[in-house]
């Protein structure tokens, strides 16, 4: 360990001016004696969020260690403990009580370090690259000593904030027209911070993100032997976003291109895709737990921008955006669960929200601008499912239609997407 480099690193950190960042909506709440872990897909803004949190603490008693900085490359867990307890105190003049560990997967034996810091009374925050540090790895290694928070790319509200358009004006048709223009851009290019804040090369950035995630988080991390097979499955699942995906569909597609594949092998690949954290596989609701965990499942992307040049289906983009917002809101209500729903008569509901043992909300999503564009089947499915599931909170999220209607004795709220995303309904 080069102690002079370390001293210089800490000195720079203590003098560093707070960064001007887009404030994130994710609320991080610490729990005594547990490490706070921020997980999420690559480039979603985990390090920036960490700096936002750092600004709320006393800098003279806070240490931030970035294990991709040259000063910290090759240090051991024992070295880090010495940096925190000795070298930081020497430079700051105070004992650190809060520790931020960024890209911790680069540190050998990081698990023991975190447990040691917690045992000594430090408040600990951790982030790591999703290619090496995943939520289930944290859960396995720290065994109840951590609490995790999911950070996705910008929400629509954060997207508007990044463009200095929040809170939005909604007092005229012109205001709403401009807001929907922003929403169209958000659906097309997504919410990756670098893409939103940049003014050029957005398509190139998105393409590079997809390639980087495929190669680093899927092929390299999971040791995929055939890149061609891996790319085919990666692309096939990506193209299926906002749709129901069955193992039979994937196996048949592989067979058509001459790739023999077993069902169990495929499930292994799907699980590895999920580990990249850019794919979410939504279970279909059933009162029987065993049936919930079977396939088919609906697949969603961690950002609508990842669908760039893959599909120009606005309805699927809208549905994906609704799913991501439900995931964000799930973080505020940890007991809530999200499912899709289809009964034996094929009455399908896009999203079913369950809290504890009660189904509390049913949501349909459509890219419709007026009542005539909303299919009767979607409304009838809501009414049928409402009776079957004993749930009366019924919503249809639309592009441009807003109303409250009573259909067959059931009240249904029709809510424009922009209003629902911004919690203005």
Q: Could you explain how this protein is built, in words?
A:
The chain is α/β, with parallel strands linked by helices. The chain has three domains: 148 residues, P-loop containing nucleotide triphosphate hydrolases (Rossmann fold, 3-Layer(aba) Sandwich), CATH 3.40.50.300; 28 residues, no CATH class; 235 residues, no CATH class. The protein has a six-stranded mixed sheet. Strands 2-3-4-1-5 form a five-stranded parallel sheet, sandwiched between helices. α1 packs across α3 and α3 crosses α4. The model has no long low-confidence stretch (mean pLDDT 91).
Please summarize what this structure is:
The chain is of the alpha/beta class and 425 residues long.
Give the SSE order as H and E letters.
Answer: HEHEHEHEHEHHHHHEHHEHEHEEEHEEEH
Note the total helix count: 16
Would you identify the regions where 5 or more consecutive residues have pLDDT less than 50?
A: none
Kindly name the structural category. alpha/beta
Arithmetic mean of pLDDT: 91
Percentage beta strand:
15-25%
Q: Whole-number radius of gyration?
A: 23 Å
**Helical content (DSSP H or I, runs of 4+):** 40-55%
Biggest beta sheet attributes: 6 strands, mixed
Distance between the ends: 56 Å
Sheet with most strands: strand arrangement: 9-10-11-12-14-13
Quaternary structure classification = single chain
Q: How many extended strands?
A: 14
Number of domains: 3
Using the alpha-carbon principal axes, give the shape: globular
């Amino acid at each position: 360990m080069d102690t002079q480099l370390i001293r210089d690193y800490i000195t720079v950190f203590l003098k560093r001016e707070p960064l001007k960042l887009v404030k994130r909506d994710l609320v991080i709440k610490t729990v005594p004696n547990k490490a706070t872990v921020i997980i999420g897909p690559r480039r979603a803004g985990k390090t920036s969020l960490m700096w936002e949190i750092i600004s709320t603490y006393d800098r003279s008693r806070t240490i931030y260690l970035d294990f991709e900085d040259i000063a910290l490359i090759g240090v051991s867990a024992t070295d880090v403990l010495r940096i925190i307890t000795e070298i930081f105190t020497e430079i700051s003049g105070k004992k650190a009580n809060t520790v931020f560990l960024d890209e911790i997967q680069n540190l050998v034996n990081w698990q023991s370090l975190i447990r040691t810091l917690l045992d000594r009374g430090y408040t600990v925050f951790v982030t790591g690259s999703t290619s090496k540090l995943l939520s289930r790895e944290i859960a396995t290694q720290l065994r109840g000593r951590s609490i995790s928070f999911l950070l996705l790319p910008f929400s629509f509200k954060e997207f508007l904030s990044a463009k200095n358009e929040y809170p939005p004006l909604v007092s005229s048709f012109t205001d709403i027209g401009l807001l929907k223009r922003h929403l169209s851009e958000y659906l097309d290019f997504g919410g990756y911070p670098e893409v939103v804040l940049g003014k050029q090369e957005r398509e190139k950035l998105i393409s590079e993100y997809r390639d980087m995630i495929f190669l680093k988080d899927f092929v390299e991390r999971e040791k995929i032997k055939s890149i061609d097979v891996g790319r085919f499955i990666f692309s096939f699942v990506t193209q299926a976003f906002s749709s129901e995906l069955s193992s039979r569909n994937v196996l048949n597609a592989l067979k058509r291109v001459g790739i023999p594949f077993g069902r169990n092998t495929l499930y292994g690949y799907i699980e590895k895709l999920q580990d990249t954290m850019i794919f979410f596989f939504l279970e279909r609701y059933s009162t029987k737990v065993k049936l919930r965990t079977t396939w088919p499942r609906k697949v969603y992307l961690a950002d609508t921008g990842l669908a760039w040049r893959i599909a120009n289906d606005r309805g699927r983009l809208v549905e994906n955006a609704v799913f991501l917002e439900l995931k964000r809101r799930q973080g505020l209500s940890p007991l809530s669960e999200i499912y899709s729903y289809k009964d034996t008569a094929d009455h399908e509901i896009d999203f079913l929200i369950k809290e504890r043992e009660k189904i509390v909300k049913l949501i349909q999503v459509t890219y419709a601008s007026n009542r005539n564009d909303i299919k009767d089947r979607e409304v009838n499915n809501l009414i049928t499912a409402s009776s079957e599931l004993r749930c009366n909170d019924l919503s249809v999220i639309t592009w441009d239609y807003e109303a409250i209607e009573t259909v067959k004795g059931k009240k249904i709220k029709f809510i424009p997407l922009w209003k629902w995303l911004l919690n203005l309904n």
